[in-house]
């Protein structure tokens, strides 16, 4: 112990971090043509020197105004609490935040408040993993199954997954976990790249980046579609020519279509052998996804980055509406709820291929997939983590992708901590970049 003084959480500091990605059309798609990739960023300060927890939720610009305010509204639930107690039971923090009845009314358990809770809960897990001296994936993989089950809220999902079933899945996941952890550290976890496929890119840039992706060892790429069918046909033809017949090519409509249009449009692109169609329609439309799945088979249906909680994921699985589950590290209420979603996917035998396009999402979600491989599903078959090749340099423990695989993080924590210089530069509106930009002094050059 570091003396006899009880360590407590002293503050929750929030930062509005925005990057001007819209100026190069990085991240552009049919529904979101001009995103400025952003993070509503939170730091849990403690009375221990240097002990901090870092977390964030992802937005695409002005949404940060609302998201930062939502995080600040939660501070009363954490300031003054024992660091040891919080880290020993992040589930208690999650339940307290979700259970605030006046804030819960704004959801319940969805939208801005739920994402704010996720940022704070993820920061607690970052702090807990740092105190244990382990990367988060290893902290979870080493945990006792009974403790992991205690971290999950089974309310609303026990009709599909009971605590006993979850415990059985986790106990079975322990078999061979040590060998899989060694394999993970040796080989990494399979990735696919979306970097060639942003809708605003020229055909020449698409082709160049698709060819580079294959040369870099990726066995799957993804293209954004849904704005114009003739453009999609042309771009899919160019991408397929660039990667050849043996590389998987997924397509992503970002919720652009109604159900009938999704079926018609996807089938119009079938000649290019798309592996999955992602977000073909509203993320809340369970039966619509089931209809799309029936109407476009054998093309797979994938969704999840905008699915708002474990309850909707439960229904997508119960209805047989998806072939691929795409959880997001920052859309739901953090690690605890994502444990529930991973267990639901394992129960239904549906592969998890997480969403990671955005600020820091690659850094976070790698830990969840790696835990799933080591201590739950035990496989990477038909499982890949999305990779987007920008903004990683702003994190102190950035992802490393080699030969089409994520290298397993080895530093303690959740890989969530941003470089202080990034915060000083890109905090909105008072960071150095935005101060100059808003004063009309930044010119047209976009910083790296």
Automatic annotation (TrEMBL):
<keyword id="KW-0460">Magnesium</keyword>
<keyword id="KW-0456">Lyase</keyword>
<dbReference type="InterPro" id="IPR013342">
    <property type="entry name" value="Mandelate_racemase_C"/>
</dbReference>
<dbReference type="InterPro" id="IPR029017">
    <property type="entry name" value="Enolase-like_N"/>
</dbReference>
<dbReference type="InterPro" id="IPR034610">
    <property type="entry name" value="L-fuconate_dehydratase"/>
</dbReference>
<dbReference type="InterPro" id="IPR046945">
    <property type="entry name" value="RHMD-like"/>
</dbReference>
<keyword id="KW-0479">Metal-binding</keyword>
<dbReference type="GO" id="GO:0016052">
    <property type="term" value="P:carbohydrate catabolic process"/>
</dbReference>
<dbReference type="InterPro" id="IPR036849">
    <property type="entry name" value="Enolase-like_C_sf"/>
</dbReference>
<protein>
    <recommendedName>
        <fullName>L-fuconate dehydratase</fullName>
        <ecNumber>4.2.1.68</ecNumber>
    </recommendedName>
</protein>
<dbReference type="InterPro" id="IPR029065">
    <property type="entry name" value="Enolase_C-like"/>
</dbReference>
<dbReference type="InterPro" id="IPR013341">
    <property type="entry name" value="Mandelate_racemase_N_dom"/>
</dbReference>
<feature type="domain" description="Mandelate racemase/muconate lactonizing enzyme C-terminal">
    <location>
        <begin position="203"/>
        <end position="299"/>
    </location>
</feature>
<dbReference type="GO" id="GO:0050023">
    <property type="term" value="F:L-fuconate dehydratase activity"/>
</dbReference>
<dbReference type="GO" id="GO:0000287">
    <property type="term" value="F:magnesium ion binding"/>
</dbReference>
<dbReference type="Pfam" id="PF02746">
    <property type="entry name" value="MR_MLE_N"/>
</dbReference>
<dbReference type="Pfam" id="PF13378">
    <property type="entry name" value="MR_MLE_C"/>
</dbReference>
